[in-house]
Amino acid sequence: MMTATSSLFETLPAQVAPERKAKPGPRLRTAVRNQIECIPASLDQTLLKDHRVRQVWAFVLRLNLSPILSRIKSVESHPGRPSADPKILVALWLYATIERIAHGREVARLCYEHIAFRWLCGGVGMNATTLNNFRIYHGDVLEKLLTDSFAALMKAGVANLKRSAQDGVRVRAAAGADSFRREKTIKEYLAEAEQRVRELRAEFEKNTDADANQRLAAQKRGAEDRERRVEEALCLVEELQAKQQQEAENLKHAIEKKEEENSDNLTDKSTKKEDKKKDTEPRVSTTDPTARVMKMADGGFRPAYNVQFISDTKSGAIAGVSVDNVGVDYGKATPMIDKIANDYGQRPEEHLIDGGYFTIEEVQALSDAGVTVYMPVKKSRDENVDVHKPKKKDSPEVAAWRERMGTEEGKEIYKERAATAECANAQARQRGLTQFVVRGVEKALTCTLWYALAHNMMCSWRLVPS
Question: Collapsing DSSP states into helix, strand and coil, what is residue 456?
Answer without folding.
Answer: helix
